[in-house]
Amino acid sequence: MNWKEDYRRKVSKPTEAIKDIHDGQCVVMGHAAAAPRLIQQTLADHCEDYNDVLIFHMTTLGDNPCYKPQCYGHFRHVSNFLSANSREVIERREGDFFPAYFKDVPAMIGNDIPCDVAVFQTTPPNAEGYCSLGVSCDYAHAAIRAAKTVIIETNEMMPYTHGDTMIHVSQVDHIIPCAYRLQELAQPTLGEVELAIGRNCASLVADGSTLQLGIGAIPDAVLQSLTEKNDLGIHSEMFSNGVMDLMKKGVINGRRKTLHRGKAVVTFIMGTRELYDFVDDNHDVEFHPVDYVNSPLIIAKNDRMISINSCLEVDLQGQVASETIGIRQYSGVGGQVDFIRGASLAREGKAIIAMRSTAAKGTISRIKPFLPQGAAVSTSRNDVDYIVTEYGVARLKGRTLQHRAEDLINIAHPNFRPMLIEEYERRFKCKWKGNGNV
Ligand code: COA
Q: How far is CA 422 from the centre of its chain?
């Protein structure tokens, strides 16, 4: 059948498409800025018609109508990465969190994560009937392959991106033509602390490095400190406006990349409309599925690979808690550990965890004698490499427990060093002399 005929037959209204979602089923939703807004809203409007529908999402930007209290009891949510809005719904026990690396999600879909219905946002079809997955490639192919029913919202405002992003009209059951603004990620305001962290990280970045940038304000601060570098490349789970700015300046050009030379490789992006316009039909940026982008073996093929991620706290052994505050699940591990391992395997690679030395307006030290009870270790002390704060750089890899504690105390906030030194002296049975006790 001609794809245009097929397309016409499949065009649906959201209210018709959701009739193919049934009680007891699991729906896998598109990710981040590519979340299917119309189906989310229509499901929420008709939540009374549903019981026990499980919805899988990862990061949701802005408002997700399915999280609203009127939907409680009708939908349950499952996720391996929480954001501001989903945190509340999980805390209210309207769903649950499962720990998993982002790269493993495609293999889990259809197995550990049931997938009766897949709902994604794409571009309208091109002349051959192919739609681009736009700003989020991540687990879309896996879900579209596994689902019994596939619904796509073909949004005219979704950028047409390149890489492994094509799905064909013949692969889907319902097509909802639409035009709405993608959700945007507000850009962080950077203060002196963030910029100092950025400068400390930049001291570890040589010309010709390939970068991965994690989620949060710190990675953007690092990018602002890299304007004098040359020939940087990108191989990253995600990126935001900071990468676009450096690509426009020619600082990031991928010229010395040893894999996908000349291309910025990513699985999803979140930023402002300017970023979405930048990636539209831009052959310098390639989107690939997350099981490829986040595979440590693929990451390691990038010589001079540098991963830069953030965390919530770290103990004196170098155990890194990036996703929990005590027992409270705050976000998820995402690709942090995969990029740390990939960068550590790469020729001349470095793995950086960068964080502010304090949290909660300076009242809490992020460097702690012990992680709090219930905290999950995201990056183990065996994987950790560099820790960076606004006070400097601590290289932990290959260092003894005592050296690690010394180096971490030296980059802790001065207000909290006495408390850390007290624990140091108790643990190592010696007086604090700064560096060089052993
Ligand atoms: N104790 C108590 N509160 C803490 C805390 C601690 N140890 N650490 C942070 N907080 C608070 C902060 O004060 C802040 O509160 P506020 O919003 O009221 O100001 C909040 O928790 C968020 O902390 P912040 O460090 O600003 O978060 P961020 O937006 O920069 O994100 C991570 C940092 C670690 C949550 C984020 O990078 C993450 O989820 N990482 C894991 C996944 C990952 O690295 N993926 C990489 C590939 S994309």
A: 37
